[in-house]
What does this fold into?
Amino acid sequence: MLAELGYEPRLTIYLASAPGAGKTHRILSDARFQKQSGRRVAIGWIETKGRPDLEELAAGITRIPPRTFATSAGIFEDFDLEAAIASDAETIVLDELAHANPEGAPHAKRWQDALALRAAGKSVLGALNILHLETVAPAAERIIGHPIREIVPLSFLRDADGVIALDVSVAVLESRLRSGRIVRIDDVERAAMGLFKPQNLPLLRELLLRTV
It folds into this structure.
């Protein structure tokens, strides 16, 4: 009950069958609602991909400055876990939970950062696509025809305080793809021949619904 009322840290995970299902939009919308309700909210990491609607939702929400990582592959900016923990934010937005962190980060995976934030007393709003879940990845690899390298353990999902599945129809996903709302217009045809093949999307949706 304390967690539901916002007095205890809460990890909420938004699940989707594929990119473009609306995870980022839903996270930012919920983050704005919490902010308007009086909670201190900050964006730890979000992928707006330059979309105006997502940029508008993110506007006005405090952002945790990224940390610069120098690795053997180059210099990268990524989520700064220590800065997020040190901030006065009560809720942290943390997109792309399956992401592999760069060398030098406190944890190998971003989902581990989410657990560390909750352990430090921060609530987390995070997201991932179902194909990254360890119990789903083998079937998803057979569907899409290539390896899935970023894996999230099922134990992480079970340990969440809330899991929200965003069930979007195949027709809606295809419409969003063709209108350039998922990838750039120049990349639409390539995406349509890859993950977004018509035969793939119903199967990925089935994997999401069966898992939930």
Summary: Strands lie at 11-16, 41-45, 62-63, 67-71, 74-78, 91-94, 123-129, 162-166. Residues 30 and 199 are 32 Å apart (CA to CA).
